[in-house]
Write a structure and sequence with these properties.
By secondary structure, the protein is mainly α. The protein has one domain. The chain is built from 2 helices and no strands. It is globular. The mean pLDDT is 53.
Length: 35
């Protein structure tokens, strides 16, 4: 999941300050909105 979409992980990390959020963002992008 994480290694499959390195571009998404970079975008998530920029939006949020948590590496765990990026992993969950792949399955639940809603978690990145409130965080």
């Amino acid at each position: 999941m994480d290694f499959q979409s390195p571009v998404k992980k970079r975008k998530c990390q920029r939006h949020s300050t948590g590496t765990t959020v990026s992993l969950t963002s792949t399955a639940q992008p809603v978690v990145t909105t409130p965080m």
